[in-house]
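Predict both folds.
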Amino acid sequence: MLKITAEKKHLLHPYGPLVSDVWTDIHRVKHNKYRGIHPCQLPVLLLERLILMATDENNIVLDPFIGTRTAAVAAKKLGRCYIGFDIDDNYVDMTKNKLNSIESNSRIGSS
């Protein structure tokens, strides 16, 4: 946490810290043991942050290209409802199996 001195306090935004449009704290999924078979897998933490910014609890998250199911997993962890579909039935089946083991709990927002 940054220490704010009295002489720099006037530089703070009155509503608190502003969210930057550059996020360097969430990294892509690099290691094969964490990746699925889909070539475009995104980190769950990234989708959790986006879902938190754009929805409220019990809202519906739509993922029209479910692929590796990242958006549905993030939505379920955050207590959101979700709808997802994909042209590839294999991805849909993998998503159904994975979502059965996911609980509604997220690392974002916890201390």
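Second protein follows, with its predicted structure tokens after the sequence.
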Amino acid sequence: MKCEWCDEEGAFEATNKVYWELPDGSRSIELISVPCIKCPACGMEHQEEDIVEKIETQLLLIDTKKLPPSMTYDEFMSVPRWLKRNYFNF
């Protein structure tokens, strides 16, 4: 796989830890084992756009006040939603 940042071959799928600000700006949460792309050449780790969109959408559809300070990506994505879908995503 080619790295989007340095154009070197050798990037690979992995997981990492990220911190995400809640939509109301009150705090951030730590998400563990989030799918990512890692590049050994430049050291960059990033989430692909579909993962970013899933996290952002989930944050809009759940009760963020009840989130613990830290949780795994899978736990986060399984939090029950208040709404069925993101009505603001055109």
